[in-house]
Amino acid sequence: MQLYHHPYSLDSQKVRLTLEENGIDYTSYRVNPITGKNMEPSFFRLNPSAKLPVFQNGSHIIFDTIDIMQYIERIAVFTLGSENVTLSSQEVIEWMQRIQAWDPKYFTLFHIPEKYRFTVSKFIRRVVIARMAESPDLAGSYHLKLDEVYETEDKLRDPDVLKQSKEQLAEILDEVERKLNESTYLAGDEFTMADVMLIPVLARIVLLDLEEEYICSRPNIAEYWNLVQQRPSYKKVIGNYFSGWRKYKTLLKTWCFVRVRSMLKRY
Ligand SMILES: N[C@@H](CCC(=O)N[C@@H](CS)C(=O)NCC(=O)O)C(=O)O
């Protein structure tokens, strides 16, 4: 089994947490979307949307995050036995869908200083054009990707987009806060895939320095956040890249790559 993913990608984090929590072994391929590695023809042919994560098991390829998570659960039941692992209940699936419906893209980009955002966006446009020149047979899909970059830039000029994203996030967190009044985890007293879905969202809030507004103001979530950060899966998938000083190392590496390549015009 192969997973194409990146530590920056929230959906990749969800899938990697699922793999770790279920103890499933896999071959990991890191594809950094900020340096445009998802535009490389080898990956782009496999997945012309260029989005992460992509999960492959033989000829079976899955792109949708919830589908991947459920597939991994079925593998876990098959290999570990149904007495050790169970498939997600309807309640868990509903939480997963509710959390997955919130798209972190604009929320994240809005909270990144314009200088960084603009440099990365311009760099990605150049990368797409360079890859398109190398593989003209993929021009149609590369053009769609370019349109997407321009559309993203446009939407970032619209304050309503941020407002809606913030409201949707706050609504989900309010509901989570109420639920955590009754149980330790999101769907009861056992850790489930609903929690796997939520953890990367909380980690993203912290990464963007918005902990006060979204987490500390909700005491049950604040307590829950302290608890889930103790899990080995969290440490491996998120903590290793983003806890404390590590986040500067992780982000600086990508930023330097983009700056140097932009200066040398090497896309
Ligand atoms: N297929 C995913 C969506 C994946 C997605 O939006 N991935 C983002 C990162 S979390 C991405 O790869 N962005 C890079 C790009 O769009 O070029 C789903 O379950 O809906």
Strand content: 5-15%
Distance between the amino and carboxyl termini? 30 Å
Oligomeric form? single chain
Topology as a string of helices (H) and strands (E): EHEHEEHHHHHHHHHHH
Mean pLDDT: 97
- What hetero molecules are in the model? glutathione
CATH class categorisation: Mainly Alpha
Number of extended strands: 4
Helical segment count: 13
The stretches of 5 or more residues where confidence is low (pLDDT under 50) are: none
* CATH fold-level label: Glutathione S-transferase Yfyf (Class Pi), Chain A, domain 2
Work out the helicity level. Answer: 55-70%
Q: Over all CA atoms, what is the radius of gyration?
A: 19 Å
Shape: globular
Your description of this structure?
The protein is mainly α. It has helices at residues 10-21, 41-46, 65-80, 90-100, 104-110, 114-134, 139-155, 159-179, 193-207, 211-216, 219-228, 232-242, 246-264; strands at 2-5, 27-30, 54-57, 60-62. A four-stranded mixed sheet has the order 2-1-3-4. β3 (54-57) and β4 (60-62) form a beta hairpin. α4 (90-100) packs parallel to α9, α5 packs across α8 and α12 packs across α13. The chain is globular. It starts with a strand and ends with a helix. The mean pLDDT is 97. The structure holds glutathione. Glutathione binds at residues 9-11, 33, 38, 50-52, 63-65. Glutathione (GSH) binds at residues 9-11, 33, 38, 50-52, 63-65.
